[in-house]
Amino acid sequence: MSSILSDASSTSSTPGAATPTATITLHGRAIVGGVAEGEALVTRERISGWGGIDPRTGTVIETRHELRGVSFAGKVLVFPGAKGSSGWSGQFHIARIAGMAPAAMLFNEMTTKMALGAVVTHAPSVTDFDRDPLSVIETGDWVRVDGETGTVTVTKRQDPTDLPLPNG
Question: 3 catalytic, yes or no?
Answer without folding.
Answer: no
